[in-house]
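Example with several molecule types.
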Amino acid sequence: MTKFSHTIDMTIELLRKEFRVRYKQLALGYVWSIASPLTYAALYYFVFKMIFEVKTPNYPLFLVAGLFPWQWLTNSISAGAMTFYGNASLIKKTLFPRYLISLVVAVQDMIHFIVSLPIIIAMILFMDVKMTGAWLWALPALLIIQFAITYSLNLLTATINLFFRDLERLVQLAMTFLFYMTPVLYAETMIPDRFRHLIIIHPIAPLIISWRHLFLGEPIQMAYLASSFVWASALLLVSQYTYNKLQWRFAEVL
Amino acid sequence: MKTAIVFENVTKSYPIYHHITSGFKNLLLNLPKALREMKSQSFTAIEAISFSIQKGETVAFLGKNGAGKSTTLGLIAGVIRPNEGQVNILGRVSPLLELGGGFHGDLTGIENIQLNGVLLGLSRKQVAEKINSIVEFSELGDFINQPVRTYSSGMMARLGFSVVAHLDPEILLIDEVLAVGDAGFQRKCVAKMQEFKQQGVTIILVTHSSADVERLCDRVIWIENHRIKMDGPTQQVLPIYNSSNG
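Resulting structure tokens for the full complex:
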């Protein structure tokens, strides 16, 4: 048995464990995973379309197109605080690669996102928005980039949180801050000119905008795609470095 | 005889982490002080310990709670690293067999076997081949399909030992597990360990039970106050240990 095939086996078993644990407690797991972004979408639709009367066309689809990827992101990152704490006995007892736990969290949230895609596609068809050929290449590209970002941020949060428990609260605050600082509820075109050029260096905005371009049938912009690719690579490096530095102390602090 | 485990002047101390874990506000308010204390304050679990264990030996670590036995086991298992000195391990190490350690309460016995078996080094295929034999060994009956959180501590120990018994380890680490099983299962465990012993498996046992030590171990390493107090054949060390702790 090679090391690689054993790593695959461990990943499969850890993933099965995550699903079993999650769905045993929440029999309606799938429903919950889409109910939450849909509820937010309805709420924001009410506030922004009915009360503030934003002009953005196809606003329900616009909201869902940003909120579903956002939900994936925020779920993976918030899970970071408990990623290693929730598996303390495994980490203290055995010597398997600990990053696999983070990887499994990210995979699980990606699967939730993928199984919620039919909802978005149904809305696209219902609202008569065209599905472009970009789906063929941009969908996998965006999935991979967002997977790398969510995995890195989960691993980074999970690692640092072991040594600095208040990180959990800081991350919650940061995610709320980031949500309003990212064009999820509003279009990037509504951002005042003097700030708009900053979007390209925003860690999350280029990704969310690219998802929305894809779902709304607008052309994908290579600059945004490249920017999120650079962020994904940088975060992977930083998180892997931090993890490598600290992982041998995990069993001590748990 | 080949050597399986060598400790050379091994010291392990833990920094006392509460200055970081006590919170952000405290950290910021006392930053220079907190950093200084983080570096200076530590708890020494074992100090300058040296021993070497040959392949096929069965060794018991005895000592009071907090003496440093579990730290030693953690170092052998490789989940923690020494601050000073060298730890050399030659061979596949089974994990620390700790009561309920490594099991997830919401998973059933079967599901825990599948997860644990793979994390402890088997492939999924190997686990599938061995699972019937593991279940049979555990004698848990229908409980094997119940969530582990409904298990008693004795049942947990059965499950844990049954998995480890099927791992084909070269070095077996057993931490305080025999104490909780009923007499019948204890006999079964001891028989299994004697079988391992005959196959040349190196066995490290941490326990408080003199009876287990007498039944199984050739050698006793007695740890007191984070250092080795005595190291020698069971019949030599055990009576002295018993009389000083009796």
